[in-house]
């Protein structure tokens, strides 16, 4: 976005000759246009082009909230100048994930005397620096910070603690066992805790969940309305969160309306947590709920909890049956129009009347799903992934047909086997000869059906009659779609070595492939797409349709498509990428992927691309092609490749990229490393949390958190 100064000063002869003069638009229209320009560009560049823009760029609507969290071109000098020019006009400042800015940059925030909301997640802030900054921000009410090793609450000044005592919203990411600033925040109404503490130090020593000496002060929860805790894998995180919960178990806040704990794996219930849940059942009415699976499985908790106007439920990985879901959560099928977000990921029996004698792959009970759809008609976010939701042969009761009634859906996650067109497979069941081999051994030649590449021909074949095609046609405003194999697991988990073997796809998913992918191209407003473990991808032709039709696509994640011994969709992917002008994030996970000159030449057409991640067991790369790609795509600030190349090749390429482009791209983060190397976990721990959480690690993100949990 640019305003050429010479044209404006000289009378905009070119615009006048075309009958359009930008400066003749009303102030309201110009302000709307300018709202899409990064604040740093507005203040430091655009406002210097002419007098009118100089005034408009300082309008309160543009300076009230400053978002730097994904302004990857901002540096320390720009932040310093920005705070000097408009610091007093800033009321909300978001610097989340600005990992590349030096620590001293935070000092300039003290110029923002009127700050009400401040987000410094992902920025390294010491205790002394935090104390100095907060001492000057007397109007602050919302704060997000990281608590790193070495944090010492005793170094906080009395003025800093006075500011913290007025903070009502706190988001705290913990990288060390600590209460952080929670005990100082005596007026807390919303508390978000992210536990990212590792079980082992870099030297290999076991860490303890005990708090640091001098942290005997307890949190103040009496005014708490929202409690949210998200735990990374590890026992230390569980130990520390129990210390935070101990205070809640003594006295449950009367105004608590959202209680959410997201914990992977097993997180056992204790006497203290049971007392907390019993107290909640007696004293509060909730609007949002998420609990570890061990706290729900086998208990009658849901029968006793009371709900007001719930907007978010997550029963991820719980053994909750559909009967319990309908009776205890959705009031026996009564209207629940307030519910906008529902996460049933990994809840394998949630669409069955009972779970006692049921196998996970048995057919679903369509009446349960129908009750859910009718009751929760305003759902905007629904996650049904990581389970086998197989529809029966009953006409009109297919999962896709029932979900098509949810006209307000914005994001949806489904297992691959759930979108299979039952009727088509009844007529022609899959045989051994037409299944795609999933092994790494010698590949068997199979007859490959020729898929036409244009959308009209695709539709003429069978798409318009399939239930998935109908579903995609009915969800016209869907922005996020995830189709993930029920047995899929990424080759690169969080704190463990890379997975060398993967489970085979569900038998009912074997026929899902190119035609289903082509159906997705109906989603005109699609912004984020994830496809994982689709066995019957033969050419990838559907990807081309998506590239042509889904012009708003910003995030694309593809994993284990087609046969595992060969990247059968490479040609179609390269054709697709030539049309993805808005694509910002691309993640590819596929064994034997060849990141060569042709691939990077096609990827260079994605002029908006910022982040690239490739995970490929036995994959190869061409260093010259990578360097050329980085030189051509000036917006790329993250390049993560975990391949089959040697450590020497990876290190040399990583060093070359950093040496060549770091100076012009301050946020550049490059990690190129052998996927199966024993030190992979040590390399991963140094990746900025923003990239690690948003793209590098594979996971389902639909309804992962309540909507608008933080700004």
UniProtKB/TrEMBL annotation:
Residues 19-66 form the F-box domain. Pfam families: F-box-like, LRR_FBXL18. GO terms for biological process: SCF-dependent proteasomal ubiquitin-dependent protein catabolic process. InterPro entries: F-box-like_dom_sf, F-box_dom, FBXL18_F-box, FBXL18_LRR, LRR_dom_sf. One of its GO terms (cellular component) is SCF ubiquitin ligase complex. CDD domains: F-box_FBXL18. PANTHER family: F-BOX AND LEUCINE-RICH REPEAT PROTEIN 18, F-BOX/TPR REPEAT PROTEIN POF3. This is FXL18 protein. It comes from Podilymbus podiceps. The lineage of its organism: Eukaryota, Metazoa, Chordata, Craniata, Vertebrata.
């Amino acid at each position: 976005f640019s305003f050429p100064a010479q044209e404006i000063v000289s009378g905009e002869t070119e615009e006048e000759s075309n009958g359009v003069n930008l400066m003749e638009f009303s102030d309201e229209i110009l302000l709307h246009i300018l709202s899409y320009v990064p604040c740093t560009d507005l203040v430091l560049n655009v406002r210097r082009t002419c007098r009118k823009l100089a005034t408009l760029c300082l309008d309160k609507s543009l300076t009230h909230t400053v978002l730097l969290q994904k302004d990857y071109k901002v540096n320390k000098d720009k932040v310093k100048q920005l705070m000097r020019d408009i610091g007093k006009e800033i009321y909300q400042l978001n610097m989340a994930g600005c990992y590349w800015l030096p620590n001293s940059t935070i000092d300039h925030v003290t110029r923002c005397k009127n700050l009400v909301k401040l987000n410094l997640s992902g920025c390294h802030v010491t205790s002394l620096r935090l104390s100095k900054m907060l001492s000057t921000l007397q109007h602050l009410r919302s704060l997000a910070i990281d608590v790193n090793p070495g944090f010492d609450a005793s170094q906080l000044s009395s003025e800093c603690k006075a500011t913290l005592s007025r903070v009502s919203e706190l988001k705290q990411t913990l990288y060390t066992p600590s209460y952080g600033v929670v005990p100082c925040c005596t007026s807390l109404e919303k508390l978000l805790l992210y536990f990212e503490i590792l079980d082992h130090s870099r030297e290999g020593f076991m860490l303890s969940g005990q708090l640091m000496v001098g942290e005997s002060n307890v949190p103040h929860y009496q005014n708490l309305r929202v409690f949210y805790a998200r735990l990374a894998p590890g026992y230390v995180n569980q130990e520390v969160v129990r210390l935070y919960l101990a205070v809640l178990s003594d006295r449950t806040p009367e105004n608590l309306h959202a209680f959410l704990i997201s914990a992977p794996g097993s997180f056992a219930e204790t006497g203290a947590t049971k007392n907390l849940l019993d107290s909640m059942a007696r004293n509060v009415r909730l609007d949002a709920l998420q609990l570890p699976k061990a706290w729900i499985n086998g208990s009658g908790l849901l029968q006793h909890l009371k709900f007001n106007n719930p907007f978010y439920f997550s029963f991820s990985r719980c053994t909750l049956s559909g009967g319990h879901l309908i009776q205890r959560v959705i009031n026996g099928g009564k209207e629940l129009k307030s519910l906008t977000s529902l996460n049933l990921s990994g809840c394998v029996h949630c669409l069955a009347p009972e779970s006692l004698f049921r196998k996970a792959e048995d057919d679903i009970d369509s009446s349960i799903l129908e009750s859910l759809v009718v009751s929760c008609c305003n759902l905007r976010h629904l996650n049904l992934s990581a389970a086998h939701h197989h529809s029966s042969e009953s006409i009109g009761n297919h999962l896709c047909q029932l979900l098509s009634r949810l006209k307000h859906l914005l994001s949806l996650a489904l297992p691959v086997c759930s979108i299979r067109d039952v009727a088509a497979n009844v007529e022609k069941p899959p045989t051994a000869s037409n299944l795609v081999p999933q092994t790494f051994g010698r590949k068997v030649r199979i007859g490959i059906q020729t898929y036409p590449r244009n959308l009209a021909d695709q539709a003429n074949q069978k798409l318009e009659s399939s239930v998935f095609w109908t579903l995609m046609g009915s969800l016209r405003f869907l922005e996020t779609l995830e189709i993930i194999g029920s047995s899929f697991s990424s080759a690169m988990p969080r704190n463990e070595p890379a997975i060398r073997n993967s489970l085979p796809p569900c038998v009912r998913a074997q026929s899902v492939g190119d035609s289903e992918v082509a159906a997705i191209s109906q989603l005109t407003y699609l912004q984020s797409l994830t496809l994982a473990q689709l066995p019957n991808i033969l050419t990838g032709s559907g990807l081309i349709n998506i590239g042509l039709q889904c012009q708003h696509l910003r995030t694309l994640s593809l994993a284990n498509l087609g046969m595992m011994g060969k990247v059968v969709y490479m040609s179609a992917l390269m054709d697709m990428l030539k049309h993805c002008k808005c694509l910002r994030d691309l993640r590819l996970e596929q064994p034997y992927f060849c990141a060569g000159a042709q691939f990077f030449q096609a990827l260079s057409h994605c002029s908006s691309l910022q982040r690239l991640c490739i995970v490929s067991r036995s994959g190869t790369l061409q260093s010259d092609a990578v360097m050329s790609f980085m030189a051509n795509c000036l917006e790329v600030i993250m390049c993560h490749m975990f391949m089959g190349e040697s450590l020497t090749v990876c290190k040399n390429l990583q060093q070359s990229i950093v040496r060549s482009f770091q100076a012009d791209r301050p946020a550049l983060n490059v990690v190129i490393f052998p996927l199966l190397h024993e030190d992979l976990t040590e390399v991963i721990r140094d990746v900025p949390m923003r990239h690690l959480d948003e793209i590098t690690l594979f996971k389902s993100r639909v309804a992962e958190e309540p909507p608008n949990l933080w700004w």
